[in-house]
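G., the chain you wanted modeled:
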Amino acid sequence: MTTQFRSIYAMGPIALAATFSLCAQNLTVLNAASFSAGSVAPGSIVTMFGSNLSAGTGAATDAGHPPVMLAQTTVTIGGAMAGLFYVSPSQINAVIPASLTAGVQTVVVSSPAGIVTGTVTVDVNATPGLFSTTGTGTHDGAIIDALTGRLGAFSVVSGSQSTFLSLFLTGANLAATPSVLVGGQAATVTYAGVSPCCQGLQQINVTLPAALAGAGRVPVTVTAAGRVSNVVEIVLLPPAGEGEFDGDADNQTRSRELSSIASVPGTSVALVTDENDDVVRVMDIAGRKVIHTIALAGGSEPVAMAVNAAGTLAVVAERGRGKIALLDLTTFLVKTEIAVGAGPVGLAIAGTQALVANGDSSSISVVDLTAGVVLRTITVGAAPHGIAIDASGRAWVTSQNAGTISMVDPVAGTVLSTVNLGTTRPTEIQIVAGTGFALVTDPAASGTVNVLLVNLNAGTYTTLNIGVASGGGANALAVWGTTAWVADQTAGTISVLPLVVAAGQVGVGTVTTVRVGRGVRSLAIDGKDQALLAVSESAGTVTVVSLATNQVVATIRAVTGEAGEGDSDDHSDHDRATNLPVVSAVSPGSARASSLFVLTLTGRNLSGATGVAFVEPGNMQENKHGKGAGGMDGGADTAFTVTGISVNATGTVLTANVVLGARAKPGARFVQVATPNGESGVAGAAVFTVMP
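Predicted structure as tokens:
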């Protein structure tokens, strides 16, 4: 496999990096893919943040030959001119001159706005950076099918042939063949070198091990010259016919993809998030079935969840919207959404506050759940993921790309100390009650179920040898009393760790293994039924494991709504959720272009409305296949401007001011309302007509 590549995808990572914003007072030079602050490699793409870097904005038209001047701005590094992809007053994307020698080099930015200087350390063995589709070095990787150029979920085989994937990165020392780990397993590298479209962009082509089939959402890392990259993710599908629905095909992103589970204290109820369907499904564990579906706003991508001690409120991390949703578990309605940081992926609740790990913006948010506001935002290491709160109220936060655990004082809003875990890429963290120890997992590790035992007081850690053959690294983690359960996602197993607590130390007894199905991604403890609940992303099921015997006692299908087996791999369960807003009448029902009127909509579940759109019938998308349900889909007619939205106390009447522009074309428009409970759909939607 050679450098099969399409330029549209090559430009994407560079353009995405240009859209990412970071507040910076001094000139800072970072790897443009990972935004890591260490050294950078000669010939690599970097992003510079600062103030007064340029008097204007400019972008290169040829990424293969970036100019040395854009918008009258130049950059020299170690006295050599740097090629420029993008310049603005606060950010510059450039290429480190390939001729530079190792060491600290002076950076000079010259423009009509003035001269800004700084330094950067150049190292041929700098840590490589993998590009992501979000432009943050986290979340979905900029990874494509090498033959077709498609993004999305992948099968390990395409028909009878192995699937070839292309990864895009910058700053790797490729003098020797790098290693690529996918879900903790080594992928075969078939090409590693320059990508033909863009200066400074590198490309690695790989084939995937057959054992990764159905692993679900897994981490990807590259190791070059002993340096481990940032973590990005891909979704690996089960073989056709072995997944959630009979009609699932190879290399086709599924409409339903389970992501996390939480148990409601004191009940047999569990909540399961579906990151592609934008729903939370309510499950009766004792009854072995889904009993309700709660729709979320379109594009939410819910990936984590926590429930308060009273069992009345659930907090859902909406990774795709940079928000958390508060679910009222007495009404099964979304009470509100609260904007936090970018890409929330981890949650913990302490009393009336929630702590949220913002994976794409290297921070945690402290949220007052009663007032519905963010109290403070605390900067931590890159790509925070897991949060655990100890008995004193301190929070322990894993940062995946930084390879650290931060001890945080949520009240003062400060980081008290940091444990450096080296090349470990930590995710989940659970504190062993009554001790000063925590367990931490690393799903990106190779060759073993890699679990760290961390002495929180001393800031030291050891790697536990749990003696279990592994399909890859460890991901999900649950601790109940003196037992821990550790999931191996790629192998589809759970390791049961008896914890031995004595003389202020924690050890591990004889480990046993439970098989629960491929793609086990999330664990929760159901105290009422004395069961461990395990989400299998690949099969779309929840496996119930007895805490007493560590034996599987039931498997519950969790990708169908309460309607049951009649569902298919679409968004139909989202679209029939009872909490969705419904618009049944619109007044006035028509108007002409160049008019101003007060709109009145009648319906139900309109509370908290954040937008009203007028959509041409051909642009209204519903039941689309793949990731993401609902949403305005960018189909709103821009001739309509809606302001001053107000909803009555019962959520049945919405009023707003509407300006209908002069360019509005005659014809029908569906009226769609967006709320924290999702978006109103086509079925039964009210129609507004633009008169000729």
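Confidence is low (pLDDT under 50) at residues 1-13, 15-25.

Shout if anything looks off.
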